[in-house]
Amino acid sequence: MANLLNVAMIESIQALHAQQWSARRIARELGLDRGTVGKYLRRGSCEAKPANLPTGSAGPKPATFDGLPAGDPKPASNAPTGSHARHGPPSQCAAYHEAIQAKHEVGLSARRIQQDLSDEGITVHYDALRRYLRRLGRSPALPFRRLECVAGEEAQVDFGTGAPLVTESGRRKTHVFRIVLSHSRKGYSEATFTQTTDDFLRALENAFRHFGGVPRTLVIDNLKAAVAHPDWFDPELVPKVQSFCRHYGTVILPTRPYMPRHKGKVEAGIKYVKNNALRGRTFTSLAEQQRHLEHWEQTVADTRIHGTTKQQVGKLFTAERAALVSLPSEPFANFQEGQRKVNRDGHVEVGKAYYSAPPEYLGRTVWVRWDARLVRLFNHRWEQVALHLRREPGGFSTLGEHLAAEKISGLERGAAWLLTKACRIGPHTDKWARAMLASRGIEGTRVLQGLLSLTKKHSTDSIECACETALSHGTFRLRTLRQLLKRSAPRQEPLPFLDEHPIIRPLDDYAAIVARALHRQTDRSSVSEGFTRHGSGVRVGAASSPDAPVAYQGCTTRSTRPRSDYPSAGCSSAEPASVSSDTSSVVPSSPLNQEHAP
């Protein structure tokens, strides 16, 4: 709106301001934006140049309003002049400028100055005094400093809005990438749909190929595709962008956040592309828009005389091209990258395939970069920890150095490794193991594992002896070795018997108990009282010795103990050689028998 104001409107603003109207009231009265009114009021004493009027037209007339005196407005007599000139009503502190300035130069605060003025009979508002002191300490604005670069030193990069694509499916928005060499103002433009990291790097690489070289530094704003964490002093770039810069030997320097004038050359270049090349145009495809931009660069942008350098852009670029850094032999390998967590099996998933990581990274997060051929794993310091060939989806790539030693079985290590360990037991074990493996073939690898496991329970000498015996008989079964080892195992020695213990009786006590028991048994068998046989009335007396005869009714015997031909002392009458009162079996006769005979 401010660019469309004519001289009559500008004079109306100044005339109303001279009547001490505020900018808000002027904007409301004239139907303008308050910022536009303030812009013209800040111009101060700068007089607007009269517009070129067509022939025969009347000169501009200021607008008239109720309450505004007719005639040419006169500037307010109380308007301050000089570097501290301001628009609006004068400050009440202006009448005491010298006193306030003297106290301010001494270093007194606004509150102290108000107190001193009050003691002198001068009353000023505290807020008005503070505003006046701020104007006193305000220094005049310094001019911007232009920075020009030598050939090949710098290029500035930015994204802008491209021309829309109009197709049968509808209208689609596009973006335009623009890079400008700071010395010659040579530019390159490329249309894109998005502003991703891949789009940014692809467009940069195409620009380098178009220039035939690489500038030493690239000035960009803090776009998310390139800057991970904006910081004026120490910005952090996206890792992929860092690799791109190392490949091409250039450096990216982001500007201060929200400071577009730090890359003013490309800001002007974006406006030039939008207003000159793409304004009012539509395209049906991105390729069509790109062809138009390339033709426009050659026929219009390169042939123009630049307003600052006053030289043709194309000719000045011809001299700058030799100062650019040479292109590398191969283009940048545009890989994909991302973070992955190492699974419990020690692998990470990339493109539905699985790749091993060192065992110390189990459960941790690593960076992964992959392209069509390779997969690389990096730690948080961007040190490469693994390199794999790309696998098909569902495939596994496991490096041997990524397997923990405890997780590698003997079968995986092979028969040669098992034979090496068997050789350490002894020469006979080595000979038996090799002969067994030659005899039994591939199944002998498990037998070797069993042979090595015998060392956990048996000594090497025992195993050597068993292997020597088995080898002499040509036996190559592990079961045979176990049996030989069991036979040759040392017998367990009996535990020593304790002669004395606090809770065990001495052996002499047990010997005395046994002796007394035997003596009592002897006494019972040798001494007995007389008794009368039931139903006979004959009294039988006890013999004086175990062999003395004892009288019974009608018989005599020498002892009540059973004879040696009795099967047992407690045998029954049904047993052979038993004695009964009704039988006539009698022991050999004796004088005693003769004496009692009838």
Features:
four-stranded antiparallel sheet; 598 residues; five-stranded mixed sheet
Explain the overall architecture:
- The chain has helices spanning 7-18, 23-30, 34-42, 97-106, 110-119, 126-137, 197-211, 239-248, 264-277, 286-301, 313-321, 410-413, 415-423, 427-440, 444-453, 460-472, 478-487, 507-526, 591-596; strands at residues 154-161, 165-167, 170-172, 175-181, 187-192, 217-220, 227-229, 236-237, 251-254, 336-341, 347-350, 353-356, 365-370, 374-378, 384-389, 396-397, 531-532, 539-540, 550-552, 555-557.
- It is an alpha+beta fold.
- Helix 2 (23-30) packs across helix 3 (34-42), helix 13 (415-423) packs antiparallel against helix 14 (427-440) and helix 14 crosses helix 16 (460-472).
- The radius of gyration is 60 Å and the shape is elongated.
Low-confidence stretches: 45-63, 69-86, 531-536, 538-598
User: How many beta-strand elements?
Assistant: 20
Overall geometry comes to elongated
Strand % is: 5-15%
Q: Strand order of the main beta sheet, please?
A: 5-4-1-6-9
Characterize the largest beta sheet: strand count, sense, and whether it forms a barrel.
5 strands, mixed
Average pLDDT level: 78
Percent of residues in helical segments?
25-40%
- Per DSSP, the total helix count is 19
Computed CA radius of gyration, to the nearest angstrom: 60 Å
Output the structural class.
alpha+beta
